[in-house]
Amino acid sequence: MKGMQLAENYFKSLVQPAFRKQFPTLYQHMAFGLAGPGSECYGFDDEFSRDHDWGPRVCIWVPERIYAAHGGRLQKSYEALPGECCGFQAVQRKDTGIRRDGIISIPVFFSTAIGLEHPPSSLSEWLMLKDEQLAQCTNGRIFLDLSGEFSAFRKSLLSYYPKDVRLRKIISRCFMISQYGQYNLQRALKRQDLLAVEHAKAMFIHESVALAFLLERRYRPFYKWQFRALEDLPHLGKPLLNKLKQVHAAQNEEELFHTVENTASFLAGQVKELLQFSHEEAYFLQDIGFALQSHIEDAALRDSVGFVE
């Protein structure tokens, strides 16, 4: 059984009946589900995931005013519930840095992930956010949210980056793919700087994946899961994954050069197709990035320099 299904079973059989009975007034302000850190929140958990922080658990998100007044009492009720469900033992909690389940303040949940207690409301706030942060607080599922407060915050984030911010991030990824794969990799090969070659190859792969998620308007998860998540991208996913595997498996300089160039050409074509962007046939991604810069409408963002994560 997957962890998400286990969480839903635990919610329906134990958590929901207990909280509905014990806290009938507060219950109307709670949101129940499972999201945040943990492979099961992405649906990627397997037998290896069960060694820590995996098992019957549910997040119960509440407004800060309720958390401040009743959080301790609510948490004690959650911890008093049987920990076992569907034949699985209670969670062995080893990562105590943040609360993964139980009673969680809504603003604290989001501020822990993205550094904001409110939905981003300006380009500058959106610009500072990273895919991994946004993926962590928009993954998983909500089982029940009667007030809609938690769901509304998530919905604002799931609307994705504003157009100009997304474009600025795409441009940055184009620059970095070009620098690592189409420029410095070749120089490192000529110098026989093998460590630099491996670093450039790894970063080319990383930046290529990051660009794919931006083009598909999806938040890229924690690095450990980005390739598994890449498979699920409907347009670029499997074709890009196959090309990156070829880059990784290249046996000699000529093969590495060919697979990197082939991947860069593929990505350049996808940028043009998915952004409906007309540009000369050249596939040097740095040039494409410079050409895209003029399509940013916000003047300050258009004229800004430097890499944007």
Which value, in Å, is the CA radius of gyration? 23 Å
Query: N-to-C terminal Cα separation, in Å?
Result: 36 Å
The shape, in one word, is elongated
Order of helices and strands: HEEHEHHHEHHHHHHHH
Strand content: 5-15%
* Sheet of most strands: 4 strands, mixed
Arithmetic mean of pLDDT: 94
The order of strands across the largest sheet is 3-2-1-4
Number of strands: 4
Question: What descriptors fit this protein?
Answer:
309 residues; mainly alpha; 4-stranded mixed β-sheet; 13 helices
Summarize the structure.
This protein is mainly alpha-helical and 309 residues long.
Describe the structure.
By secondary structure, the protein is mainly alpha-helical. It has a 4-stranded mixed β-sheet with strand order 3-2-1-4, with helices on both faces. β2, α2 (64-80) and β3 form a beta-alpha-beta unit. The protein has helices spanning 3-22, 64-80, 106-114, 123-127, 131-138, 149-158, 163-191, 194-215, 223-230, 237-249, 253-274, 285-293, 299-302; strands spanning 31-34, 59-62, 102-105, 141-145. α3 (106-114) runs antiparallel to α5 (131-138). The model has no long low-confidence stretch (mean pLDDT 94). Helices cover 57% and strands 6% of the residues. The chain contains 13 helices and 4 strands.
Q: What does the secondary structure layout of this molecule look like, with pairings?
A:
Layout: H1 3-22, E1 31-34, E2 59-62, H2 64-80, E3 102-105, H3 106-114, H4 123-127, H5 131-138, E4 141-145, H6 149-158, H7 163-191, H8 194-215, H9 223-230, H10 237-249, H11 253-274, H12 285-293, H13 299-302
Parallel strand pairs: 2-3
Antiparallel strand pairs: 1-2, 1-4
